[in-house]
Specification:
- It is a single chain.
- The chain is α+β, with helices and mostly antiparallel strands.
- The protein has 3 helices and 5 strands, in the order ααβαββββ.
- The protein has a 5-stranded mixed β-sheet with strand order 1-5-4-3-2, covered by helices on one side.
- The chain is globular and about 50 Å long.
């Protein structure tokens, strides 16, 4: 199978995240995640099943908003916001994904609670142009 381009890989990650996190279409999401998916996140059980089971356990209000996304070869880094999952603060995440033959095969993440304006020393939002309203 031919190699995918950076543009194709970024589009794949955005579509995969929307399908799983926002639409919660698990059957459709299976086409994006390898059955042999390798998970490096401390928050998620191993494999594709670990990820899907985590999402199934979260409130239906879970949302993912993409921000900056970059690609280099088989790697994509998506900076985004996870909200509505039951925590006091949203999560701002940099998800690092490895793609082979048009499918997500490996994942790492860096996650931080989103700061309010009162909590932020820089007074610049961590995501987007506005601060969250949470406490």
């Amino acid at each position: 199978m031919p190699k995918t381009t950076a543009k194709q890989n970024k589009a794949l990650v955005l579509q995969a995240f929307d399908t799983l996190f926002n639409k919660r279409d698990y059957a459709a999401a299976e086409r994006f995640w390898s059955p042999d998916y390798i998970q490096h996140s401390a928050h998620i059980e191993p494999g594709r099943e670990g990820l899907f089971n985590l999402i199934k356990s979260l409130p239906s209000t879970l949302r993912y908003e993409p921000g900056v996304i970059v690609a280099d070869g088989e790697f994509v880094i998506a900076h985004g916001r996870f909200s509505g999952f039951g925590a006091i603060a949203n999560w701002i995440a940099a998800d690092i994904l490895r793609i082979q033959e048009g499918i997500l095969v490996e994942h790492w993440d860096v996650i931080q609670d989103e700061a309010t304006e009162e909590q932020s020393k820089s007074k610049a939002p961590m995501f987007g142009n506005t601060f969250p309203t949470h406490g």
